[in-house]
Amino acid sequence: MSPRPSPTAAALGLQNRVTYAQYRDLSGQLQATLSSRVRIEQAKGMLAERWSVRADRAFMALRQYGERHKRRRTRVGPCTTRSCDGEP
C-alpha cells in the first residue's frame, strides 16, 4: 500500500496547479499583445512610407481612423494592406 500524501503536500500541489494556470493565461495574454503590437507597427510603417510622413503621424492617423469608425487599432492595422469595407 502506498503512503497517503500529507495535507501539506496536497495543498502545495493545488497551489502549484493554480499558479501554473495563472502564468499560462498570462503568457497567452502577453503573446496576443505582442502579436497585435507587431501588426500595428507594420501598419504604421506602411502608412508612413506611402504618405511620406513620420511614424508618429501615421500612428495618429491609425488612431483617428479607428476612433471615427469605432474600431480598435488592432483591427485597423491589417486594413492598411487589404480592403476592410463592411468588416465589424
Describe the overall structure:
Helices cover 72% and strands 0% of the residues. It has three helices and no strands. Helix 1 crosses helix 2 (55-68). The protein is rod-shaped, with a radius of gyration of 23 Å. The protein starts with 6 loop residues before the first helix and ends in a 12-residue tail after the last helix. The mean pLDDT is 82.
In short:
With 88 residues, the protein is mainly alpha-helical. Helices cover 72% and strands 0% of the residues.
Main attributes of the structure:
single chain, 88 residues, mainly alpha, 72% helix, rod-shaped
Helix-strand blueprint:
Elements: H1 7-51, H2 55-68, H3 73-76
Helix pairs in contact: 1-2
- Percent helix range: over 70%
What's the total helix number? 3
Low-confidence stretches: none
Rounded average pLDDT: 82
Query: What string, H for helix and E for strand, traces the elements in order?
Result: HHH
Shape: rod-shaped
**Which structural category fits the helices and strands?**
mainly alpha
C-alpha termini separation: 61 Å
Kindly provide the radius of gyration, computed on alpha-carbon positions and rounded to a whole number of angstroms.
23 Å
Q: Describe the sheet with the most strands.
A: none
What percent strand?
Answer: under 5%
Strand runs, count: 0
